[in-house]
C-alpha cells in the first residue's frame, strides 16, 4: 500500500516521502446459486454484478475498483500504520489533544490526529493568506488526494485537465465557526477555505480536475455515501476516475457537548461495539481519501465495488436516532438483488454500530435476516470504531480501509472492547481476535444520524504475479521530491524492498516529467546488495533541445543487445524485426543471443544488428514519451534516423540493412 506523506512545514521546503508495502491477495472464486424463485444469481464467468459493471462494445465488463487509498486516522499517519495498530489490537483512543475536557463535563479521551498544524501551501498553489484561513480538514485532504493518486500509480501531473470527479463527505467546519466569531478578524478568505460545500471544488481546482465536484453532508454516512455517488458517476460515464473523501476534525468542545446532551456519547470516550455495556460512542477525528477508477484503466486494484446502494429510512417509535428494522431488512435485500449476488457469499461485514444496545440489535437482526439466512457458518462482523472511535463523516471510508487491509493480508483484525456480548442468536460472530478471512466478498454498512443508510459490497482482487521477477535482476528506480532528504528516504525504502518489483513499477509510473516544484531528481539501480544511487538538484529555466544521434558501422560488438532482451519493450521490437528477416534466411534472434565473437565479421550482420537495435531503442524511448527535437544519422545509422522520423517501418528499416 503506497502512502505519500506530504512534507509538513510552515514554508515551501517540504518533501514527499513514501511508505509502500504490497500485501498478499485472495484468490477469486466464481459464484452460481439460486434464489427462492429459482432464478440464477451471478454466473461462472464473473459477470452480472449489478449496475456497477458496464458492458463494453466487445461484450466484456468494466468494473469500478478502488485503486488508491490514503488516510490520517488516530495514531495512524498512513495505511501502513493503521494496519500495524489494527493487527496488534491497539486501542487508538488517547488523552484529548484539542481542549481540556474536564471543564466541559466531557470524556477525557478521544481519537485525534497526531499533527494538523503544518501545511505546505506553496506545493498546492495556496496563497499564504488563504492558507491561514483554510480549514485543516481541507489542508489534510489536499495532501491525501496527492497520496491517493500516487498510491494508485497516477502521477498528479498527468491527471490535470482530465474528467476526474471529486466527492467529499463531510460534517461541520468548526474552523469556519472559530474564524467567524470575532468580526474584527473576519476576512474574505474564510469562505474560500472553510465552506464545506466548496471543499470538493477546492480540490478540483488544486489538481485541475474537470469532472463533477460536490460535497455531501449526511451525518455519519457522508463518507460512504460519497463513495456510492462516485461509483454511480463512473458507471454512468460521467467520469473515468473519481476522488472520494471523508473528513472529520473535532476542533472545539461545543459539538461534543451537544452530542452529550443528546445522550449519544459514552462516558469514557470508548466505543463498545456489539457489547451489552454500550452506552454511546466516543468521538474521533479522521480523514480518508480514495481513488476510484474503471478496472480497465487501473494500474493497481485493491478491491472491486460490486454494488453500492443508499436510502433514507423512517424510524421506529418516532426516534430520529435509531434505524428501522423492517426498512433496513428490505434495503439489504434490494442491494443484493441488484447485485445479483447471493447474500450468503458475504464472509465478513464491517458494521456501522452506533455503540448502543438498541441500535446495534436492530442493525444485527436485519443483517442476520438477509445475509445469514442460507449460511452454514456464523457471519463474521466487526467495526473499526472499537479501535479508532467514531470518525463520524469519515466512518464509512475508515471501515472500507479496514476491509481493504483484511483483504490484502487475508486476516481480519480483532474488535476491541467486546466483553459482554449483545448478540446471542448464533448466526453472527464478532471477530474478537485475529481471524482468517475465508472468502472473497465483504460488505460495509453505514448509518447516518438523520436516517441515511449506505451498504457497499466489495470483492477482493487476485493480484497479478507478473511484477515478481527473479531477485538477481537489476532494476532502475526513479523519483523526484521537494528535498534531498525526501528522495533519500524513498530510495532507502526501495532498497529495503528491493525484491518488490510491483512497488518499483508504481513509483516509476508516478515519477512523471521534471517539475520545478520537485527539483530534486534521482535514480537508484537495485542489484542485490550493491545498490547504485545518484541524486541531483535540477534547475532548468529553459528546456534544452534533445537530439538522437544514430551511429554507423564500427559501433557493433559481440553480444550487444543480449542483456537488453530482458526488457519487454526491447525484446518485442527485436522479435518484430526478426520475423521480417526470417523469410530471407536471417535469424536476428540467433545473431544477438547465440552469436560468437566472429558474428560481426560479416558486414551484412553488422548492418542488420545496428539497425535493429536502433529501432528497438527508439521504440523504448518513444514508449517513455521521450521525443527528440532533432535527428542525426551516420552510415547505416541513417536508417535508424529514418525510422525515428517516421519515414519507414521497423520491417523496412532492417530489410534495407540487408
From TrEMBL:
Enumerate the GO terms in the molecular function aspect: fatty acid synthase activity; hydrolase activity; oxidoreductase activity
Q: Which GO BP terms, alphabetically? A: fatty acid biosynthetic process
Where's the Ketosynthase family 3 (KS3) domain?
Answer: 61-460
A Pfam family assignment: ketoacyl-synt
> What InterPro entries has UniProt attached to this entry?
Ac_transferase_dom_sf, Acyl_transferase_dom, Acyl_Trfase/lysoPLipase, Ketoacyl_synth_C, Ketoacyl_synth_N, PKS_assoc, PKS_Beta-ketoAc_synthase_dom, PKS_NRPS_Biosynth_Enz
From the UniProt record, list the reaction(s) this protein catalyses: acetyl-CoA + n malonyl-CoA + 2n NADPH + 2n H(+) = a long-chain fatty acid + (n+1) CoA + n CO2 + 2n NADP(+)
Show the Gene3D superfamilies listed in the entry.
3.40.47.10, Malonyl-Coenzyme A Acyl Carrier Protein, domain 2 (3.40.366.10)
Key words of the record = Acyltransferase, Fatty acid biosynthesis, Fatty acid metabolism, Hydrolase, Lipid biosynthesis, Lipid metabolism, Multifunctional enzyme, NAD, NADP, Oxidoreductase, Phosphopantetheine, Transferase
Per the UniProt entry, the Enzyme Commission number(s) are: 2.3.1.85
Q: Which PROSITE patterns match?
A: KS3_2
- The entry's protein name is Fatty acid synthase
Lineage runs:
Eukaryota, Metazoa, Spiralia, Lophotrochozoa, Mollusca
Amino acid at each position: 500500500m503506497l502512502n505519500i506523506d506530504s512534507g509538513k512545514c510552515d514554508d515551501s521546503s517540504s518533501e514527499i516521502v513514501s511508505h509502500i508495502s504490497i500485501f498478499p491477495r485472495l484468490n477469486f472464486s466464481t459464484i452460481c446459486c439460486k434464489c427462492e424463485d429459482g432464478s440464477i444469481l451471478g454466473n461462472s464467468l464473473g459477470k452480472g454484478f449489478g449496475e456497477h459493471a458496464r458492458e463494453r462494445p466487445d461484450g466484456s465488463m468494466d468494473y469500478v475498483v478502488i485503486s488508491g487509498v490514503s488516510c490520517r486516522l488516530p495514531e495512524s499517519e498512513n495505511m501502513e500504520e493503521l494496519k500495524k495498530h489494527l493487527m496488534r489490537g491497539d486501542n487508538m483512543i488517547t488523552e484529548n489533544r484539542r481542549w481540556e475536557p474536564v471543564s466541559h463535563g466531557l470524556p477525557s479521551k478521544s481519537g485525534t490526529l497526531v499533527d494538523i498544524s503544518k501545511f505546505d501551501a506553496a506545493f498546492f498553489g495556496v496563497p499564504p493568506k488563504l492558507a491561514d484561513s483554510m480549514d485543516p480538514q481541507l489542508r489534510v485532504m489536499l495532501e491525501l488526494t496527492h497520496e491517493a493518486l500516487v498510491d494508485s500509480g497516477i502521477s498528479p501531473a498527468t491527471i490535470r485537465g482530465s474528467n476526474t470527479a471529486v466527492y467529499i463527505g463531510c460534517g461541520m467546519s468548526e474552523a469556519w465557526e472559530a474564524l467567524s466569531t470575532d468580526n474584527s478578524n473576519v476576512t474574505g478568505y474564510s469562505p474560500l477555505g472553510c465552506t464545506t460545500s466548496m471543499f470538493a471544488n477546492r480540490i478540483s481546482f488544486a489538481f485541475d480536475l474537470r469532472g463533477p465536484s460536490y460535497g455531501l453532508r449526511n451525518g455519519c454516512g457522508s463518507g460512504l455515501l460519497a463513495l456510492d455517488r462516485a461509483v454511480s458517476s463512473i458507471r454512468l460515464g460521467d467520469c473515468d476516475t473519481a476522488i472520494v473523501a471523508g473528513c472529520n476534525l473535532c476542533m472545539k468542545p461545543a459539538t461534543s457537548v451537544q452530542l452529550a446532551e443528546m445522550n449519544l456519547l459514552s462516558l469514557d470516550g470508548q466505543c463498545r461495539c456489539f457489547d451489552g455495556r454500550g452506552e454511546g460512542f466516543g468521538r474521533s477525528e479522521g480523514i480518508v481519501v480514495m481513488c476510484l477508477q474503471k478496472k480497465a484503466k487501473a494500474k493497481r486494484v485493491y478491491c472491486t465495488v460490486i454494488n453500492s446502494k443508499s436510502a433514507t429510512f423512517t424510524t421506529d417509535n418516532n426516534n430520529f436516532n435509531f434505524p428501522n428494522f423492517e426498512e433496513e431488512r428490505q434495503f439489504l435485500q434490494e442491494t443484493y438483488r441488484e447485485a445479483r449476488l447471493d447474500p450468503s457469499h458475504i464472509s465478513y461485514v464491517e458494521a456501522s454500530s452506533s455503540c448502543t444496545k438498541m441500535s446495534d440489535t436492530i442493525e444485527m437482526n436485519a443483517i442476520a435476516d438477509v445475509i445469514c439466512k442460507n449460511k452454514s457458518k456464523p457471519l463474521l462482523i466487526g467495526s473499526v470504531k472499537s479501535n479508532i472511535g467514531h470518525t463520524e463523516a469519515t466512518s464509512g471510508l475508515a471501515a472500507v480501509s479496514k476491509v481493504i487491509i483484511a483483504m490484502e493480508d487475508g486476516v481480519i483484525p480483532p474488535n476491541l472492547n467486546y466483553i459482554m456480548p449483545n448478540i446471542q442468536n448464533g448466526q453472527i460472530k464478532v471477530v474478537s481476535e485475529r481471524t482468517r478471512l475465508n472468502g472473497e466478498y465483504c460488505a460495509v454498512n453505514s448509518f447516518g444520524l438523520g436516517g441515511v443508510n449506505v451498504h457497499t459490497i466489495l470483492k477482493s482482487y487476485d493480484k497479478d504475479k507478473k511484477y515478481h521477477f527473479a531477485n538477481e535482476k537489476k532494476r532502475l528506480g526513479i523519483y523526484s521530491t521537494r528535498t534531498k532528504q525526501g528522495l533519500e528516504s524513498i530510495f532507502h525504502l526501495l532498497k529495503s524492498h528491493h525484491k518488490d518489483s510491483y512497488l518499483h513499477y508504481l513509483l516509476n509510473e508516478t515519477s512523471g516529467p521534471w517539475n520545478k516544484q520537485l527539483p530534486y531528481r534521482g535514480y537508484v539501480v537495485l542489484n542485490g546488495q550493491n545498490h547504485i544511487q545518484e541524486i541531483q538538484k535540477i534547475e532548468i529555466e529553459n528546456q534544452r533541445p534533445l537530439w538522437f544521434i544514430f551511429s554507423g558501422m564500427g559501433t557493433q560488438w559481440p553480444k550487444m543487445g543480449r542483456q537488453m532482451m530482458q526488457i519487454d519493450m526491447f525484446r518485442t521490437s527485436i522479435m518484430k524485426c526478426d520475423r521480417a528477416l526470417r523469410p530471407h534466411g536471417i535469424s536476428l534472434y540467433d545473431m544477438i543471443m547465440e552469436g560468437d565473437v566472429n558474428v560481426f565479421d560479416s558486414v551484412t550482420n553488422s548492418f542488420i544488428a545496428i539497425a535493429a537495435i536502433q529501432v528497438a531503442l527508439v521504440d523504448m524511448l518513444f514508449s517513455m514519451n521521450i521525443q527528440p527535437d532533432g535527428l542525426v544519422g551516420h552510415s547505416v545509422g541513417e536508417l535508424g534516423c529514418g525510422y525515428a522520423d517516421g519515414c519507414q517501418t521497423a520491417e523496412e528499416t532492417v530489410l534495407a540493412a540487408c
